[in-house]
Design goal:
The complex is a heterodimer. By secondary structure, chain A is an all-alpha fold. Chain A has six helices and no strands. Chain B is α/β, with parallel strands linked by helices. Chain B folds into two domains: about 220 residues, Medium-chain alcohol dehydrogenases, catalytic domain (Quinone Oxidoreductase, Chain A, domain 1); about 160 residues, Rossmann fold. Chain B has 13 helices and 18 strands. In chain B, strand 12, helix 7 and strand 13 form a beta-alpha-beta unit. Chain B starts with a strand and ends with a strand. Classes of the chains: A mainly alpha, B alpha/beta.
């Protein structure tokens, strides 16, 4: 079982990155064309919008889906894709290469944060791990289980809690319906 | 007095608050000697339950000593008596109470008008829970006001410890009712999702009621080991297919009786539908994660019974209701009619058939309550059941 502590410092950092992801993703989705133009990548505005969807998914995963580690590693993979995309735009043939370099720097900084967060989450998991306690002696019964089975079969349970007799599972050939004349419907 | 107070999502604090007072002649004041954190308290902690307000005192599993009794409750309670207080407040006189349906008492919810609007008709008042159920101050505190105290109590005989009887107020009768409303037969396989405290009590109840085979489903090793100790065959859903294993254990026919002891916060990342539920929950498109309901409906034997003691709070999505209709499944659910069962269960504890204290893994002072909520929620330190001492 994956261990995660939803009140630890690393988890708080992961949540922060989750909100960042949602904010960035929303910006990419809404202003994909403007961002693309700013970086001199007009032909990639649809791709930037798709990256926005990816960011929002990662953000929801980090904030809402329990163990943040897979989502942080998902962000790292996404960062790698972003870096590859931006690397194609930092050449001298792009008149706005300066802006693309700024974006590339920001993505690399975010990647570093993601990696630090992932490392901290794994460190916490390792530190927290200990063999699960064995509660195999906690039956709660005074005697072995098989000796207790059915001890309360005569318990006072009202008819309103019982399955109506007509609906009870019957031994083969003894159903309530079999004693009634058959009727087509 | 000191009490655990709800301040918002993930924010329960141990605060100093005013002592409770008798407000009605049927009230009593109880000095809490032992209380517990229930799985359904986590829905408040995580703020998945609507209708909470800052300053609410939480907790609905508690017991203690009667300190003060209102004039109209004096015939039923005396100062100094030890009582467990059921989490459902009931008048004992309305049509529902007369039928033993205490959890839907028609008179004990002081926010009846609100509940009528939200639920169609009101249900009983509950301690330390949402304002939809009255917003009564809870029992994770040094003192509690118990409304309708002439009925809302279970007297504790001498010779039993707090730990032996505390769970008569909720999880033991909840597990018992979950099993009882399945009408368990000696030929039945009973599958139980969730091996938290209610699941553990349900397992023991199903065994005592005579199920041929009890199967327990969870992913937490220590919970599975406790389930096994109680007589269950265990399935770790992270390691094997629940549906395949249940079919294998029942000759391909599925269990006759399926019990959901998980409720609205099913594990969020184990299956695609759970992940979708969690994402929708985060976006406020649904309130409850219903993976266990879907799985029970799928695997249950046609003409079988689904029993739901797990708490649901509002709206669920993508429920395959056609599957349930065509299979002719019977659904039984509801909050527990605690006092309907407690005479019998108390007798079984006294008789030594069962000691519910087996489930306690942590005992802490009340002041440590906020931290213990997190330990319980995150299943750290082998935590299954937390008991607090004010």
């Amino acid at each position: 079982m994956a261990l995660y502590d939803r009140s630890s410092p690393a988890d708080s950092m992961a949540r922060g990155l989750g909100w960042f992801s949602i904010g960035l993703g929303a910006a990419e989705l809404v202003a994909g064309r403007s961002l693309a133009r700013w970086m001199g990548m007009e032909d990639k505005s649809a791709l930037i919008r798709a990256y926005g969807l990816r960011e929002i998914t990662a953000g929801v995963g980090l904030l809402a889906l329990g163990d943040p580690k897979p989502w942080i590693w998902g962000r790292v993979a996404g960062d790698a894709v972003d870096i590859a995309t931006l690397a194609s735009a930092v050449g001298d043939d792009n008149p706005r290469a300066g802006n693309a370099r700024i974006a590339l720097g920001a993505v690399m900084a975010a990647t570093a944060l993601d990696l630090v967060c992932a490392a901290k989450l794994h460190q916490e998991e390792t530190a927290a791990w200990s063999p699960p306690p064995d509660y195999g002696d906690r039956s709660g019964f005074a005697r072995p289980v098989d000796a207790m089975r059915g001890t309360a079969s005569d318990a006072p349970i009202g008819d309103d809690m019982r399955t109506p007799k007509i609906l009870q599972f019957q031994p083969a050939g003894q159903s309530q319906a079999s004693s009634q004349p058959s009727r087509a419907f | 007095m000191r009490a655990l107070v709800w301040h918002g999502a993930n924010d329960i604090r141990c605060d100093t608050v005013p002592d409770p007072q008798i407000e009605h002649p049927r009230d009593a004041i109880v000095k809490v000697t032992t209380c517990a954190i229930c799985g359904s308290d986590l829905h408040l902690h995580d703020h998945f339950m609507p209708g909470m307000e800052k300053g609410d005192i939480v907790g609905h599993e508690f017991m203690g000593e009667v300190m003060e009794v209102g004039a109209e409750a004096k015939g039923a309670l005396k100062v100094g008596e030890r009582v467990v207080v059921p989490f459902t407040i009931f008048c004992g006189e309305c049509d529902q109470c007369k039928r033993g349906n205490y959890s839907v008492c028609e008179r004990s919810n002081r926010n009846k008008a609100l509940a009528d609007k939200v639920f169609g008709h009101t249900t009983a008042g509950l301690f330390g829970y949402t304002h939809l159920t009255g917003g009564y101050a809870g029992g994770q505190a040094e003192y509690v006001r118990v409304p309708f105290a002439d009925h809302t109590h279970i007297k504790v005989p001498n010779g039993l410890t707090d730990e032996q009887v505390l769970f008569l107020g909720d999880i033991f009768p909840t597990g018992w009712q979950a099993a009882a409303q399945c009408d368990i037969q000696p030929t039945d396989t009973v599958a139980i999702w969730g091996c938290g405290p209610v699941g553990q009590m349900t397992i023991r109840s199903a065994v005592l009621l005579g199920a041929k085979q009890v199967v327990a489903i969870d992913r937490v090793a220590e919970r599975l080991s406790m389930a096994k100790a109680g007589g269950a065959i265990t399935i770790n859903f992270e390691e094997e297919s629940v549906v395949e294993r249940l079919n294998e254990l029942t000759g391909g026919k599925g269990p006759e009786k399926c019990i959901d002891a998980v409720g609205m916060e099913a594990h969020a990342t184990a299956t695609l539908d759970s992940m979708m539920d969690r994402a929708k929950q985060a976006l406020m498109l649904e309130s409850d994660r219903a993976h266990v309901l879907r799985e029970m409906m799928y695997v249950c034997r046609p003409a079988g019974t689904l029993s739901i003691p797990g708490v649901y709070g509002g709206l669920v999505d993508k429920i395959p209701f056609g599957m349930s209709m065509n299979k002719g499944l019977t659904w039984r659910m509801g909050q527990t009619h605690v006092n309907r069962w407690t005479d019998d269960l108390l007798h079984r504890i006294q008789d030594g058939q069962i000691d519910p204290s087996f489930v306690i893994t942590h005992t802490e002072p009340l002041e440590n309550g906020p931290e213990m909520y997190k330990t319980f929620r995150d299943k750290r330190d082998g935590c299954i059941k937390v008991v607090l001492k004010p």
